Fold each of these.
Amino acid sequence: MRRVLLGLGAVAALSGCEKPLTAPGNTGVCWRMADGMNGKPDFRPVAPNIDTLENCAVRLEGIRMAYGQPVTGAFQGRFIYVTDQEVSAASGPKSQRYRVFTPAQRLEVQKGIQTLMAREKAGG
């Protein structure tokens, strides 16, 4: 029994050493989080030269709409969460989230994205 407890203590100690997930801090780059090697999250660039977190959130909303799945992304060290219910941002995965767009603003964003998607589909 003592060996089991010692083993569990060692595992707990090692898991405490794991580095917490942080969002990339690159200036002006919008990121999307994806499954990386070894099952750990990895960030992949969506677009460079983005000037605000809100503009990055719009890009991520477009990805959510195109694929029908929630999207987690990042902009300048902050996480962005895009779900069917809302678009929110936080300083870390366990931090309090705040809404990026009001429901009315998000509806306008979605209308704009739908217009762009329809134009692209039509070839124009």
Amino acid sequence: MTNNIYPPDHLLRKWESLIIDEEQNVDVVLYEAFQAGADQELEACCEWVSQFNYDDYSYQERLRAARRSTKPPSLKAQALALIDECTDPHGDYLDNNALAIIRRAIESLPD
């Protein structure tokens, strides 16, 4: 296992393009970069722990399942993410699907 984790060149170019060419919000790109680094670290750990697998008992899969939830984002998280996408002055407008998600989130709030 290595001590240093570096993003692949293609991801660096992608993130640079998102910030400079597409004027994406830097926070959004940083979150994506942070997640990519965490995923890379998890895979390195899974590779290392795979040496301890016995027959049908996979520590690798247990580690991955424990560290990465398969639970979909909540309605609140989805609505907030859609709003965040549109706060950028160059962001897209909210389409009908996005509006429906935000509407359901708001309607689920107590009066």
Amino acid sequence: MADREIWRISREVIVAETSTKARELAMDGPIARSWRETALPTARRFGMPVETITGPDAGIGWDDMDELIEYCCEQIWLVGDSDEVAGKLNAFNAGVGGFGTLLVIAQDWDEEPWKRSMTLLMREVLPRVNDVRQPALP
């Protein structure tokens, strides 16, 4: 059995005072830009099925980049206010069966929004996250 305590999980994370502000920062900033200009086109170029990203039921194709970016913001990236991100992180933890370390993927952020997001993550989100080193109980 895999030792969940040594697992490292990486995700884009942006926390703001409101979920609307966090979503704005994600969709109008470096996270969406990086995925739109680099990550998704590279995956497509190498022949990755879009369902690898969205799952089989999303109904989103490579040709609808705006909808694909929206899906990523809602389903893959950890974006929201402190409550929303804590909930998403707890759900993610339960979904993968526990992990040891969250690695926050850094983008080319302006310093102030990045610092604010990391401060909120540290002070308001992480204290409310279940112990990610242990598998979540059913």
Amino acid sequence: MSNINSYRRKFLIGVTGTAAAVTLAPGVFLRQVQAKANDEAVSDKVRWGMLIDVNKLEDGGDACIEACKKEHGWGNEEHSSDLQDAQWIRKVKVTEKMTGKAMSLPVMCQHCETAPCIDVCPTGASMKRPDGIVQVNKHVCIGCRYCMMACPYKARSFIHETLTDQRPGTPRGKGTVESCNMCVNRVDAGKNPACVDAAPKAMLFGDLNDPESKISKVLKKYGGTQIRADLGLNTGVRYWGI
């Protein structure tokens, strides 16, 4: 166990940052945030989060999904069953029973503060960086899939086949579990997650711990909805319009 903890400490080292300029509500703009120095470790002073306005997703999230596939190289594998398809991010259709109103929204790892996937992982492969980004350490994952059963958002999938189309910033491997990592490779380089850049009018990314960040100000003024808020997981992804 000490070797695993030592590896996890090394794996957690990185840098944080983001940059964006979008509008979610009248008069609300996301300020630009510069990336930290490359030799500065990830800090719990920051907690990255995302706000999604489903009413401004004209395609229901299709552009977000395609951007995620392009960034991380998933979705091109051939499977014997659709149930085995990777699902870093997927489009979910929701219908209000009373009014019949239907809407589509993208659902990915919700980057919970209290993540069930981490609680059940026997090796420490499911982990959360100090800045709130939940990841899977592919070098430690043994493919038991306990995390998949524990996740209430069905945000994780298992790799069944040998992969050939790998992306340098996204480790993937047969026999391991994978899920949205909030484009940690982009965040550490001072960029937005790919899905946010694909839908800039509908998605906002920033530091939830900073009361002066635009995402914090928007959430304080207009609020935001968590999927399955009753579970008390304090998700890093919030929604409008659901």
